[in-house]
Amino acid sequence: MQEIKLNKMFMNQNIRSAVLEVLNSGYYVKGPNLRHFEESFRDYIKSKYAIGVSSGTAALFLAYQELNLNPGDEVIVPSHTFIATATPLAFFKAKPVFVDIDPDIYCMDIEKVKRKITPKTKCIVPVHIYGHPVDMDPLLEIAEEKNIEIIEDCCQAHGAEYKGKKVGKLGDIGVFSFFPSKNMTVGGDGGMIVTNNEKYGEELKLRRDHGRKSKYKNELLGLNFRLNEIQAVIGKEQLKFLGEWVEKRRELVTFYNEIFEKYPNVKIPSEKEWAKCSYYVYTIQIENRKSFIEHLSKKKIATGIYYPIPVHKQPIIEEIYGIQPNLPVTEEIVKKIVSLPLSPLLNNEELNRIEVAINEYMGDL
Ligand SMILES: Cc1ncc(COP(=O)(O)O)c(C=O)c1O
What we know:
It contains eleven helices and 14 strands. With about 375 residues, it is of the alpha/beta class.
């Protein structure tokens, strides 16, 4: 019996041929595929700029650099996220200010964000976690009033929509990751920065390539955060399917919800009326998570925990910034969350195996 993985990467003949073509072309960086991928991503998001970079982490690093963060500047971030939302801040000696989440959608709680704002707050980072958008309107309103920048972390939210608009271009800068488990990938590491801000767009294009406009003239501080041609050509092909895959993911969410509706002790995902969640993962909360995971594992069904240790409790964060204030909601849910396989490539036989395994476990409780 084959393991049912959490995610699967889509591959077709077009991708294989396109990669081979790049290998044979002799152009491995800064070529036409990057340009085409950026253009199609920009059109998909409907932003003015889309700038390919080497990872979601690189995109966050560059976005923070672009804001010109100074030592002591505060940046409000959720703790219930991947650590890369916060760690790049340390390179600019800026301080992450961790905020608790709304327990229904796992995103930052806007009322609690408001309470964390100080004169030193330079930026707020809404993370559209699991593909569910943050409630952006009240956040944008505060940002406007207090002159605070908004960087959207969309690394788990390709194709998610807030009030009918794709996430990424709602704030000042949006960042995406194409790590292989994501809703779309580039067959390795990769990322994208999107923005409608001309200054940011023009500068970020240079910063990801040593800050240069021409080969030997470096005008801005930058590093090598380029996205290579093989990754770009895979991304371009994958993007064509993203809309279809988001719909399929949403169908799978209905499939899971129907199973779990019978078991009121399991908390299933919620979706706000203003949101279109792109469901990077299907996450439930369950008491006694360990035995549920063990049961599924015996049936060769993978599970994941995104994330078991909140960022404010990570040793490196405590080492740099000291012990952080408690975040009761985050600290409670991380004990109970577990994510189940959610790939548009799951077939009926696999779905049936998942359904049987869940019912077996729940029926025995
Ligand atoms: C919310 C979030 N932010 C940032 C990142 C970093 O992206 P990457 O792994 O491409 O560096 C990820 C990726 O896992 C993520 O999920």
